Amino acid sequence: MKVLAVETATSWQSVALLDDDRVLAQEDQEATGAHGALLLPTITRLLAKAGLTLKQLNGLVCSIGPGSFTGLRVGTATLLGLRAATDLPLVLVPTLEAMAWSLRGTSGPICPVLPSRKDEIYWAVFRWGADGLVERLVSEHVGSPQALVQTLTGATTIFGEGWTLMEPAIRAALDPALTIIPVPGDSARPSAVTVGQAGIERLRRGEIAGDQVAPLYVQRTEAEIRYEQSGGVSPVARRQARVATKTAARAVRQPRSTGKTRG
After folding, report:
1. Among 82, 16, 28, 19, CA closest to 55
2. pTM
């Protein structure tokens, strides 16, 4: 099962093409403030590298947060546009759940952590079940390191960029009787590879996104608060519609690459 997976929840942009567990092509790059300019060219480049067209794929997979409001809007709007151009099924994967896939098979609770605004962090707690599927023990939260610690009930594997940045504060709030097992290295950043792996599993189960698609912000943007107060049309929804329309038009016009790309 071939999918295009996109991860834009942080300043680190990750795009991958997968055929089941096999990575056909992958590209990761720093994209602070540039997700909109970088994402579609990266997708085009990876398709050429793998010798594929969008219509040869079985689905599209998008990380939906929590994370950067701007990055998530760009990611979802771009894949909505590609869905409109190709009629491919779109699968949505929560970012923290996809991170848990990087520790597939780990025993006990797993807590991926990402930085949020100011001194806050995003987190959730998962566990790998006997059926080989990830189970959510604690839903996505945003809050202080102290709030995170209060949701842990036993020895927990903890990792992610939020852990790297806030380790001293988390350890300071930790009950001496509670054990955490830190995981350093590549798992700190979200990856389109694990987004794709989680998405393929959801695709097999028929968990396809409907017409209404929204990022998982956990905390609301100021634009959403103004929308709720005014009863008007969400600026986010208007922006998504504009970007999706433009992306679809560009995807339809995009000629198939005949050159060879080294990878």
Report:
1. 82
2. 0.83
